[in-house]
Amino acid sequence: MFELAALVLFVLIAGYPCGALASSSKKESPGSQNKELETRCNPYCFWTIEPIMDHYQALKDEITAQKELQGFERIGSDLYYIEHVKTLNWTDASEACRKMSARITDIKDEKDYRAVLTRLGERKYWTDITKRGEEKEYTSASTGRKAPFIKWFTGETDNKSNTHCLAINGRQDGRMWDDDCSFDHYYICKRVKNVEK
């Protein structure tokens, strides 16, 4: 940590005489900042500061990536966030996952199911499997296709309402329950690439 502080101090001191600290009202990309610095500095100044700026940007990017993954754990080949404290309805749980650049989890197969199940407490956790309105089969909310895997708890497919969302029930050997989507349960997020925040 001391090395990072020393590096930042050096950039600030070295950059000040060259105009590196000149403020700009518009946000600029790192490349345009380098061009501005190159025109304001003499060649030696720019040659000295550019590698430091590149290293500093790489450190910032690494810290940002680590913050985004905080709370996620690798289970199998995927990254999961399992919420054990706060309960939400299905829609809000899905939104909470999206804000973490993740999706409410899908369950692909028995292996995927067993791997996640080992991390759950004795509570209900939302999955992305739903049957809404007049749909006749359960689908994955993330793909829109028929759910590839469901492990039903006995008698759980006969709810009368038009909104059905599936939750894994950790108390009942992890079997899946068909619940009203407005009920509050814990939830599981799965990290996926290219999810808009």
Please describe what this structure looks like:
The protein is an alpha+beta fold and 197 residues long. It has two domains: 2-21 and 28-68, no CATH class; 73-191, Mannose-Binding Protein A, Chain A (Roll), CATH 3.10.100.10. The chain has helices at residues 2-18, 30-40, 43-68, 90-99, 110-117; strands at 73-75, 78-88, 102-104, 124-132, 139-140, 163-169, 176-179, 185-191. Strands 1, 2, 3, 4, 5, 6, 7 and 8 form an eight-stranded mixed sheet that branches. Strand 1 and strand 2 form a beta hairpin. Helix 1 crosses helix 3 (43-68) and helix 2 runs antiparallel to helix 3. The longest helix has 26 residues, at 43-68. Mean pLDDT is 76; it is low at 16-27.
Distinctive features:
Mannose-Binding Protein A, Chain A, 197 residues, 5 helices, 8 strands, eight-stranded mixed beta sheet, alpha+beta
